[in-house]
């Protein structure tokens, strides 16, 4: 009988990168050489929020699998984006490997490196909060208010549950009559709070 650990799969993701590395064909060749059983290719530059191949790769992950990317710039557009993606990989019980940067979260050193990156990002957000807080207090004392939240807490919890069940952000956005970016921001905010 084959256990899940023995049947773990390497799932490749090749997004369009601004950096060279041979374009999409070169990225796919790297993923094949790395032993990826399935490869998801992002053939059009969908931007930060519209990457159906990445969504497909993340949904395909099973516990023990590894998501493999040729480099970090193939996978993410920013550090916050990277941490959001890696939190989804971790939630699936999977690992992550970047070939160019030699990052592998299935090893202790790789997990440590990603935790350090996450801590630096969290520190940066805390410093931004410290700089912003006095201005917010002044505005509040003067009676100025910010924009009200788009969703009530019950709706936000329901949306996050739908995303966790495997629905894409676009599908959830259609259900609620909002833009996909609104759903992605809510998901990103929840991931930040979980760090």
Automatic annotation (TrEMBL):
PROSITE patterns attached to this UniProt entry: RECOMBINASES_3
Annotated SUPFAM superfamilies: Homeodomain-like (SSF46689), Resolvase-like (SSF53041)
Presence of the UniProt keyword Isomerase in the record: no
Chain coiled-coil ranges: none
Alphabetical list of InterPro entries matching this protein: Homeodomain-like_sf (IPR009057), Resolv_N (IPR006119), Resolvase-like_N_sf (IPR036162), Resolvase_HTH_dom (IPR006120), SSR_resolvase (IPR050639)
Protein keywords: DNA recombination, DNA-binding
GO molecular function term, any single one: DNA binding
Resolvase/invertase-type recombinase catalytic domain sequence ranges: 9-143
Domain of life: Bacteria
Location of region: Disordered: 131-151
Family: Belongs to the site-specific recombinase resolvase family.
PANTHER family, sorted: DNA-INVERTASE FROM LAMBDOID PROPHAGE, SERINE RECOMBINASE PINE-RELATED
Name of the protein: Recombinase family protein
Provenance organism: Phenylobacterium montanum
């Amino acid at each position: 009988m084959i256990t899940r650990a023995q049947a773990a799969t390497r799932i490749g993701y090749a997004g369009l990168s601004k950096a060279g590395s041979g374009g999409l064909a070169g990225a796919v060749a790297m993923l094949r050489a790395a032993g990826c059983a399935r490869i998801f290719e992002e053939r059009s530059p969908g931007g930060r929020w519209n990457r159906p191949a990445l969504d497909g790769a993340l949904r395909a992950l099973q516990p023990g699998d590894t998501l493999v990317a040729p480099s970090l710039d193939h996978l993410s557009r920013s550090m916050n984006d990277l941490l959001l993606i890696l939190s989804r990989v971790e939630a699936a019980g999977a690992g992550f490997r970047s070939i160019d940067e030699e990052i592998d979260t299935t090893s202790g050193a790789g997990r440590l490196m990603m935790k350090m990156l996450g801590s630096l990002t969290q520190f940066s957000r805390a410093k931004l909060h410290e700089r912003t807080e006095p201005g917010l207090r002044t505005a509040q004392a003067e009676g100025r208010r910010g924009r009200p939240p788009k969703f009530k807490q019950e709706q936000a919890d329901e949306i996050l549950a739908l995303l966790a069940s495997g629905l894409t952000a676009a599908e959830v956005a259609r259900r609620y009559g909002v833009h996909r970016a609104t759903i992605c921001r809510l998901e990103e905010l929840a991931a930040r709070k979980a760090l």
